[in-house]
Amino acid sequence: GGTLVMQVRVAMLGDHHVLLLAEDRTEARRLEAIRRDFVVNISHELKTPVGALALLSETVQDAADDPDAVRRFAGRMQTEAARLAALVQEVIQLSRLQVADPLVAATTIALTDVVHEAADRSRTTATGKGIEIDVGPVPRGAVVLGSHDLLVTAVRNLLDNAVAYSEPGTRVAVGTTLRPEADAVEVAVVDQGIGIPTEAQPRLFERFYRVDPARSRDTGGTGLGLSIVKHVVADHGGEVSVWSQLGHGSTFTVRLPLAPDALATTAPAAPTG
Ligand code: ADP
């Protein structure tokens, strides 16, 4: 909840009439606050790897005649550089979202393309880790309005997380289900991974939130992935939810409104005219 902020403009119409234009600025103020917070947070987040890199490069110089130490420090520099790269990549994704007007760019998107492209991209990492990604059948009527690239980004972030927080030899499944009664479609990403404690679940979609930074440090994550998912899904008029049991796995479900007429494509040809 917050205060309603109105912007009022006054125009004179002739000598005796005044026109008052009142515009609701609440949403603009809220976005501005989010942007400000984000700049503060990201500056803080970027400082850590940059500081570590500066320190490590000094240490490497000092250790020049100890090859083992050089190798060790160089490895840590690689980790920090990868984290920096991941942060920058996600900042770019987020800034695209904030300037994009999703309604302007909306086109008809078949979710089968989105789901398969996202799975193909995540498979490289998954296969390397001995995790299989199974894509279930995608109903023909699973069609939404929006941006193909943004939706691939969202599903891919969920898949990358499922892979990152699972053990080798487990499976990740993607299921797509029509919910005709709600004019919606759901894409569920199911893993058999480490799971998420109940008390952490409400905070997952906040920027930079990580359940256990120590535990997830080696995944190279940034804590931005799920906030990107939430933004993309919200921009498409949908929502994302989580179900998880610690030690057993997690399911992230994205629910999106179907494009108008989406279901007509699965129904037998209707008489026209
Ligand atoms: P990160 O870059 O750290 O993965 P995210 O915003 O994508 O950031 O996720 C936030 C946190 O939620 C992660 O750090 C992790 O602790 C937890 N998390 C996300 N997805 C899963 C999952 N499939 N299984 C277990 N934990 C998860």
UniProtKB/TrEMBL annotation:
GO-annotated biological processes: cellular response to phosphate starvation
Domain of life: Bacteria
GO MF terms, alphabetically ordered: ATP binding; phosphoprotein phosphatase activity; phosphorelay sensor kinase activity
This protein's UniProt keywords: ATP-binding, Cell membrane, Kinase, Membrane, Nucleotide-binding, Phosphoprotein, Transferase, Transmembrane, Transmembrane helix, Two-component regulatory system
Domain Histidine kinase: 41-260
UniProt subcellular location: Cell membrane
Enzyme class: transferase
Catalytic activity: ATP + protein L-histidine = ADP + protein N-phospho-L-histidine
Gene Ontology cellular-component annotations: plasma membrane
Descriptive protein name: Sensor-like histidine kinase SenX3
Organism from which the protein derives: Actinotalea ferrariae CF5-4
